[in-house]
């Protein structure tokens, strides 16, 4: 009977509890902006009832007991708890952004860690930064946002490559970091920026888990994916704008040019070329003729994402069309991308992840960055010449001694340039995760890249008046290249906690990587009608006796094993050890395998009892790392000699084409090693509003793989297709300090601010060069002069090697007491440059050349500001480089070429100038390579400024739009610098010779109007 009473009592209480259940719903929004947040997890605390908000931020729960607590949680926002009462049927919840959680989880390679536990030098750029910067190429988003990273442009032309250097130039071979996209090796510059969720940069021994490909640093890309339990989210982003030159050079106008030329001829004892300058006026500004304003750029991006309880998806497509400010459509770039990402929980234990990206681009280019380029001609053609003759033909530049035989009309050059490059790439990965037992996860991933490119270049039969660029016979060159690779990763991750305080994560696995491809190159002569429309080898009829076709094929592989053990005690003493074994077919027997260990450690000091409870410093972590990484980024088959060269010879009176050896073999080739040391400090202050990260690092690169080491010409290494061997012949060290500080604060519900500043000091020094001469030369200057850049012990890699100057000779008396300069090509005269006798032997000659400049900046820094006030947002991004020098090599030293207007301050008599020499057609030594041509290229650049307005959600929701934002911005707004050239931040990418300016295509200033719409 007693049990029946208890049963009745239980039923009464149960029915009472059920009667007290409520249906609770509402909407979750961002505090401040009021925008709805989809995918927020809504859970009854200590209960089983839960749901997630839909695309409009709305949620609904049934049967919630009065007095129960709802927990609202979402990545990037602070958790919020709300107690349900009888009147809580419809709720309006506002979540506050939590800067601590935004980047709580950091991808570190074959896994992830909470940011507080990371013991390496790691930096993260999130999707919000990318949305503001609107980079055409992803690399641009790293400039100024990540300490220790320097991004330089090879050209401002659309689609041009960018060079990334992490903590300096470590080798004179391949210096760029490896990009890992969702677990597989990919190409950063081909990605659609709107597909990126986050960019993680591994700068120290943390990258050792990637072994041979991690020596130059690793960039980990995480792409966007759908969210579980969310309706389809449609996002459309577009911007359109126009471009113009961010900088033009100050050239002499026609009158100034004629007067200067008369003076030059008079000083050389020649008759004046212009007997009258009346009526010349300003003449032709050739820069204005070849550089256009209002050049269009347009971008569209559409994405759809969402998910159920088991499956998430993300589909996106983008279209970018950009014309060049030089030559417009003749230097255009078009890129289309498409991506499909699918994640599925196949079962409670098995997960599937896929991500496939297709990229197509078309690029047209002009001759640039060198002698005879379009900009080179625009800077050197006299302003007294007109672009066209009276009958409408292009004006021919005279073929005289004073103008040489390489300066031509740049407008004619643009008109006669015809080329087309098409590139298609399919890449992606398929990954599986299986939870074998509690704590043990097995993972496998297959990544792949396959690309095909075709190019067509038409050389029109044309004459420029006896110049070297005259084309006597029309031709078309067509290339077809196929490149492929795949990687297979299989690894196990075991997580275990012992005695509640000892936490272990062990990772063990292997990687198989194969890379193969082929290329075919052919040239046909005598194109029908001498026209681009008929420029196809199948239509050509002419032949040559010399060999015009070639091909290649390659097949390279790596087999690697890796292991990592991560340990922490009570979450405050952190240790990690990694070992990678790599085997590469780029090295011969005995040298194929390399072992690369690394160690990292951390101590979270703020968790110690002695730190106290009332902390002004909220978080403090000391960390250190040391490790060895490998590098095999060299040309294929360097340890053997292949028949890849050309051998053309005369046999029985006839020209015969044969085959010769290519690169000279070096069977002793071995791994290049990067030894990385780092010690860092992470701080959070002022209630986590301010974060500070500081690092000191030393990166020593040993056994540098140096290609084309000079050897005797008897070996035939100067024949077509042949080359000198690759040798382990050097050591380079980069050391420096990084510092970054970020401050974020919500002043009110309507106004918040975010400020960031980072600073990097870097010292580069060559420690060893073992090639027989003690130095390696590179770059070029002028015509026929020795190489101006060197790699030499005790100096930075690529430093400038030439004559040091000491002003201008003011009179003959100064010349008489000065060491003779005749060995440089001419006796000095008043008004000529005075060179320094470095070795004090009383003669100025080649032995007096010395260090006259460094292309590597002493310091780089970035400053970023973001402000949000109600529905308005403002952003400013800047970057600065200090201490880098650049060689002015875009001026032809011929007497009749046009000049920059600094020459107006030339020496014209005693006391008139001590910096710019006289002008003359006579022989002088003024044009030999000296620090007269080396300039301080330090600069401060306003990279991006943007102002946006987000429509009030109450208004946009009427038409079922969850977000509508309009913005206006300017990229590359202005560069503050004393450098005279187009771009002080440009480089041709060569570690030895990269700081020589041959007339870099200027980076455009771009004005943008954009629209973001979310449905």
SSE layout:
Blueprint lengths: L1 H18 L1 E10 L10 E4 L5 E3 L5 E8 L3 E5 L6 E4 L6 E6 L3 H4 L2 E3 L4 E3 L7 E5 H7 L15 E5 L8 E5 L11 E4 L2 E3 L9 E7 L15 E6 L6 E16 L8 H14 L18 H5 L4 E13 L3 E14 L3 E18 L4 E14 L10 H7 L29 H6 L1 E21 L2 E20 L15 E24 L3 E24 L24 E20 L3 E12 L8 E12 L12 E15 L13 E7 L2 E7 L11 E14 L4 E13 L2 E2 L20 E2 L1 E17 L4 E19 L5 E4 L10 E4 L6 E4 L2 E4 L3 H5 L16 E3 L14 E4 L5 E11 L2 E11 L2 E4 L45 E3 L2 E12 L2 H4 L6 E15 L18 E2 L6 E11 L1
Parallel strand pairs: 1-7, 13-16, 46-50
Antiparallel strand pairs: 1-4, 2-3, 2-5, 5-6, 8-9, 10-15, 11-12, 13-14, 15-16, 17-18, 17-51, 18-19, 19-20, 20-21, 21-22, 22-23, 23-24, 24-25, 25-26, 26-27, 27-28, 28-29, 29-32, 30-31, 32-33, 33-36, 34-35, 36-37, 37-44, 38-39, 39-40, 40-43, 41-42, 44-45, 45-48, 46-47, 48-49, 49-51
């Amino acid at each position: 009977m007693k049990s029946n009473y208890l049963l009745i009592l239980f039923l009464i209480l149960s029915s009472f509890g059920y009667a007290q259940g409520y249906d609770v719903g509402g909407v979750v929004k961002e505090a401040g902006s009021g925008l709805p947040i989809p995918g927020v997890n809504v859970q009854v605390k200590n209960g089983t009832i839960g749901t997630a908000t839909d695309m409009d931020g709305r949620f609904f729960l049934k049967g919630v007991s009065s007095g129960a607590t709802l927990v609202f949680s979402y990545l990037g926002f602070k958790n919020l708890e709300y107690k349900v009462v009888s009147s809580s049927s419809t709720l309006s919840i506002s979540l506050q952004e939590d800067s601590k959680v935004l980047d709580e989880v950091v991808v570190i390679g074959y896994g992830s860690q909470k940011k507080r536990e990371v013991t390496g030098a790691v930096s993260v750029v999130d999707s919000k930064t990318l949305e503001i910067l609107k980079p055409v190429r992803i690399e641009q988003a790293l400039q100024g946002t990540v300490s220790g990273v320097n991004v330089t442009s090879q050209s401002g032309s659309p689609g041009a490559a960018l060079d990334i250097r992490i903590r300096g130039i470590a080798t004179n071979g391949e210096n760029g970091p490896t990009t890992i996209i969702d677990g597989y090796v990919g190409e950063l510059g081909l990605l659609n920026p709107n597909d990126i969720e986050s960019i993680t940069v591994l700068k120290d021994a943390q990258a050792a888990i990637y072994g041979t490909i991690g020596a130059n640093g690793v960039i980990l890309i995480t792409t966007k994916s759908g969210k579980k339990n969310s309706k389809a989210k449609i996002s459309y982003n577009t911007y359109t704008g126009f471009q113009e030159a961010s900088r033009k050079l100050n050239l002499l106008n026609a009158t100034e040019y004629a007067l200067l030329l008369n003076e030059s001829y008079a000083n050389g004892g020649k008759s004046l070329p212009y007997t009258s300058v009346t009526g010349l006026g300003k003449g032709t500004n050739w820069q204005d003729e070849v550089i256009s304003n209002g050049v269009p750029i347009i971008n569209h991006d559409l994405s759809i994402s969402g998910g159920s309880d088991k499956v998430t998806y993300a589909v996106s497509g983008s279209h970018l069309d950009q014309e060049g400010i030089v030559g417009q459509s003749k230097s255009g770039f078009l890129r289309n991308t498409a991506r499909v990402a699918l994640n599925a929980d196949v079962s409670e234990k098995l997960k599937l992840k896929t991500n496939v990206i297709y990229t197509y681009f078309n690029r047209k280019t002009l001759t640039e960055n060198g002698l005879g380029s379009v900009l080179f001609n625009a800077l050197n053609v006299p302003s007294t010449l007109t672009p066209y003759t009276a009958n409408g033909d292009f004006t021919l530049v005279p073929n005289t001694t004073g103008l040489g035989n390489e300066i031509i009309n740049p407008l004619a050059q643009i008109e006669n340039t015809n080329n087309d490059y098409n590139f298609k790439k399919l890449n992606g990965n398929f990954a599986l995760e299986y939870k074998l037992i509690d704590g043990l996860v097995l993972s496998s991933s297959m990544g792949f890249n396959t690309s095909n490119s075709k190019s067509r270049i038409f050389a029109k039969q044309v004459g420029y008046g006896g110049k070297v660029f005259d084309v006597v016979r029309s031709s078309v060159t067509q290339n077809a290249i196929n490149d492929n690779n795949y990687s297979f990763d299989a690894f196990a991750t075991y997580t275990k906690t012992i005695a509640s305080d000892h936490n272990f994560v062990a990772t063990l696995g292997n990687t198989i990587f194969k890379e193969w491809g082929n290329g075919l190159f052919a040239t046909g002569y005598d194109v029908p009608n001498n026209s681009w429309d008929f420029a196809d080898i199948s239509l050509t009829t002419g032949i040559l006796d010399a060999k015009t076709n070639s091909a290649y094929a390659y097949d390279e592989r790596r087999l690697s094993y890796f292991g990592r053990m991560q340990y922490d005690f009570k979450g405050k003493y952190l240790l990690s050890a990694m070992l990678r074994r790599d085997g590469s077919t780029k090295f011969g027997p005995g040298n194929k395998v390399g072992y690369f260990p690394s160690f990292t450690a951390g101590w979270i000091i703020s968790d110690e009892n002695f730190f106290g409870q009332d902390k002004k410093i909220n978080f403090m972590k000391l960390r250190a790392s040391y490790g060895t990484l490998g590098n095999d980024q060299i040309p294929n088959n360097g340890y053997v000699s292949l028949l890849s060269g050309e051998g053309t010879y005369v046999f029985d009176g006839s020209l015969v084409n044969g085959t010769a050896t290519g690169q000279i073999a070096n069977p002793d080739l071995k791994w290049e090693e990067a030894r990385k040391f780092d010690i860092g400090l992470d701080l959070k202050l002022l209630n986590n509003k301010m974060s500070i990260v500081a690092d000191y690092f030393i990166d020593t690169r040993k056994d540098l793989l140096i290609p084309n080491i000079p050897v005797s010409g008897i070996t035939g290494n100067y024949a077509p297709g042949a080359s000198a061997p690759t040798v382990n012949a050097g050591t380079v060290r980069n050391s420096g300090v990084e510092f970054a500080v970020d401050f974020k604060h919500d002043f009110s519900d309507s106004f918040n601010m975010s400020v960031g500043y980072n600073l990097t000091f870097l010292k580069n020094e060559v420690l060893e060069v073992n090639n027989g001469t003690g130095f390696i030369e590179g770059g070029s200057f002028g015509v026929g002069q020795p190489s101006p850049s060197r790699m030499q012990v005790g100096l930075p890699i690529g430093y400038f090697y030439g004559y040091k100057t000491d002003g201008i000779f003011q009179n003959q008396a100064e010349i008489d007491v000065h060491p003779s300069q005749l060995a440089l090509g001419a006796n000095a005269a008043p008004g000529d440059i005075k060179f320094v006798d470095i070795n004090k032997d009383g003669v100025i000659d080649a032995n007096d050349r010395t260090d006259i400049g460094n292309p590597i900046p002493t310091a780089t820094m970035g400053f970023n500001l973001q402000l949000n006030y109600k529905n308005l947002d403002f952003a400013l991004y800047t970057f600065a480089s200090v201490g880098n020098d650049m060689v002015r090599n875009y001026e032809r030293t011929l007497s009749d070429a046009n000049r920059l207007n600094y020459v107006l301050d030339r020496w014209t008599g005693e006391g008139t100038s001590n910096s710019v020499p006289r002008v003359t057609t006579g022989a002088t030594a003024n044009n030999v390579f000296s620090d007269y041509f080396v300039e301080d290229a330090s600069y401060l650049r306003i990279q991006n400024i943007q102002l946006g307005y987000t429509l009030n959600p109450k208004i946009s929701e009427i038409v079922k739009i969850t977000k509508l934002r309009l913005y206006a911005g300017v990229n590359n707004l202005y560069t503050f610098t004393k450098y005279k050239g187009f771009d002080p931040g440009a480089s041709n990418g060569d570690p030895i010779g990269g700081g020589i300016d041959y007339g870099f295509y200027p980076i455009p200033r771009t004005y943008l109007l954009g629209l973001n719409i979310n449905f």
